[in-house]
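Might you be able to consider the sequence and fold that I enclose below?
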Amino acid sequence: MNPISDHLSENLDLIFVGFNPSIRSAETGHHFANPHNRFWKILYESGLTPEKFDAKEDYRLLELGYGLTNIVSRPTKAADEITKEEYQKGREELKKKISFYKPTMVCYVGKGVYQEFSCKKSLPWGKQMESVIPGIIDFVAPSSSGLVRMKLEEVLAIYREIPLLLREVKNGEK
C-alpha cells in the first residue's frame, strides 16, 4: 500500500494531523476515506467547513486555509500496528513539516496522535498550554474514527473550539 499525499502549503490557519492512512485511504488516495470515519461530518457540523465534504474533496480544505497530514505515512488497518520506530521517524518528519509550513494551529485528530508527537502522557482536550513548536498552537481533538466511544455531541463541542480560537488569533486577542 502506498502512502497518500499531504495537502499542505505555507501559512495555513490549521493543519489536521491523523495517526496514519487507513487501508481505504491508501486505496482511494484520499484522507479519512473510511466510510465509518466521521472526520468530514465533524468538520461540517462543528462549523469548520461550509458544507460536508467527501473524502475525494480532501484537497479543497486548502481553499479554506486548512491542511492534512499524518504522523506516520504507512497505511495500516489499525493504529496499533504502527511501530515505535515509525513513530520516532514520523515525529521528526512532522516537526520539520510544521516548522516549514508554519500554520497558526495544528489539530491532532486523536489524543494518541499528540501523545506520540509530544511524548506527553497526560493532557487535556483542546488547546495545549505549551506547544511542541513555539509560536504554533497545539490543539488536541478526539479521533474521528467510528471506534471512538465518545458521543458525537461531546466530540463536536471540542471541535467547535477551533474556529473560535482561530478567530481570536486573527483578531489579535490571543
The chain has one domain: 14-170. Helices lie at 23-28, 39-45, 84-101, 111-118, 152-159, 161-170. The two ends are 42 Å apart (CA to CA). Residues 14-170 form a domain with the Uracil-DNA Glycosylase, subunit E fold (CATH 3.40.470.10).
